[in-house]
Design goal:
528 residues; alpha/beta; six-stranded mixed β-sheet; five-stranded parallel β-sheet; 14% strand; globular; monosaccharide binding; carbohydrate derivative binding; Phosphoglucose_isomerase_CS; cytoplasm
Amino acid sequence: MDAKALWQRYQNWLYFHEGLGLYLDVSRMRFDDAFVESLQPKFDKAFADMAQLEKGAIANPDENRMVGHYWLRNPDLAPTPELTQEIVQTLEQIEAFAEKVQTGAIHPPRANRFTDVISIGIGGSALGPEFVAEALAPDFPPLKIHFIDNSDPAGIDRTLNHLRNNLASTLVLVISKSGGTPEPRNGMIEVKKAYAGHNLDFAQYAVAITSPDSNLDKVAKSESWLARFPMYDWVGGRTSEMSAVGLVPAALQGIDIRAMLDGAKEMDDATRVPDVKNNPAALLALSWYFSGNGRGEKDMVVLPYKDSLLLFSRYLQQLVMESLGKEKDLDGNIVHQGIAVYGNKGSTDQHAYVQQLREGVPNFFATLIEVLEDRKGPSPEIDPGVTAGDYLSGFLQGTRQALYENQRDSITVTIPQVNARTVGALIALYERAVGLYGILVNINAYHQPGVEAGKKAAAAILDLQSRVLAVLQKETTALSVEQIAEKAGAADQVEAIYKILRHLHTNQRGIVLQGNLGQPSSLKVSAS
């Protein structure tokens, strides 16, 4: 396509939202009008289905749940007055709590104010808050946030060691819908023990964000924790940033949560428009469908050209991949749907993997995130008439052009600056795009059977470990791995048992392995 035709295509397909100052450019996705027209019936259904979802239709039949994260930023849309009131009251309680913590009205026993906060969560209870903290936290926040988002003992130690001198002024958020999810439960128990080791009463530092009457809620209530905030069963983890899950940690850091909600609400309004060309989420869904032939045949590479948006690709990994990665469609057919997401940041990526993007395997489409404002205040010149921000803008445009020249598709999302409103809008934009795309490809974007399968498999390993230890505690002579498997009634799980024993031995957990560690069948195993 010549330059004049390309300029016209850019103008024809450029979306601009005046209220948010947000641009969406899909002109470098090489679909044609006939392709758009062919998808119109699917989009008509998607717009209708999304409207029903927002009215309270059961969107997750596996758990008989509504999907109502849209109500969080527009409570009047909630299907009952009781839900509307609950959303409004929770937001007011979050703001009041954050203000009392920041002013010292709520403070720890040994200090005038809290200085830090540990947020313990996993998946959507961590990725959203982490992204928002990186994007929006001020340089000198009223409380500095730290995350425990894994069951890695060394990682937990590192976080606690960094806070060693401030533990007596550190608030703890425990975020878990059920209270039984292993990772946040493990983190809570370890942090609780650390506080006890410093003669600190954990309850006077702890806040629960959980479902009402969950195991965690009952513990927090019985131990008189500082506060409890609700998680709703109609908000999935990957869409929970606008709930107490994301708003409590954001408010404690001094982030304007009302502005984030307002930005999301404004984007929600824009993405309800039942017209593909004038709906930015529909344009994204259209582009994803085109690039991957409606089967996820190409990966989504997310390249934010702003340091503060570095974690956006990690956040989108869960939102997109957990929502769309499904074995079966709604009719029960095996379809193996999904879109893989990965990313770095510009212009780091230009010196990392843009070489492959331009000249290697063409198994992706790129999403470039552009921020128009370079910094607060003027920039010094690097060269005559050129600033560092000019270079960054040039790198973005150059990457986009280089990709297009070699038949590599790209989308560009442009925001005026990184602030609470624009971050809220970005989150809402991709939430809606995922919902629309899921309907286009006829899958349920709001359940996650694969995640549950992984949890069950992990629980089975821990049960097997208990059986193995019970066998060894009864034995007076060393056994082979195969003998242990037989006695544990798990002859078909020898490999798993070997790995359990290797892990326990390495961590000096009462297991002795003798023999060649590289030849599992040669080992003799005993309890120390």
